[in-house]
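[retry 2/3] Sporulation protein: previous attempt timed out, resubmitting with same input.
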Amino acid sequence: MIGFGTGCNDNQNQLDEDNNDLGVSLVHTTKPIDQSVANRAKEKMIAKEEISDVKAVNTEKELFAAIKVDNFDRFRLKKIEKSIKSDLEKMNPNHEIIVSSDKKMMWELEQLEQKLQKGNTDKKSLKKRFK
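[retry 2/3] Sporulation protein: success.
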């Protein structure tokens, strides 16, 4: 019984390490701002081989995502953005989806993810930030 429990823990650690290697940081908050939509979107986007980094944050009605694409794949950037937006719209039909490869949006979402992680923001300021 103990060996079985240990084996499962090793697999979980391996999954966590795999996600960390890909540059995905899942946002876990103790506040009532649920980021599960953004976390599922990140996992879906980073699974694509063209994408090297992902940041995403969601409000109740919107999902904001920023992607970083490998250098060679930048030639197909608009097609990749369109494909990801389509996939995310199918996954989250109740959310307005905004996908961008803009570096400023990537930076803004990274800052916002950190604030959410630390609990330094609330729903009102989150909505205000993206208007």
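[retry 2/3] Sporulation protein: The helical segments are 2-21, 36-46, 77-91, 103-118, 123-129.
[retry 2/3] clearing retry counter.
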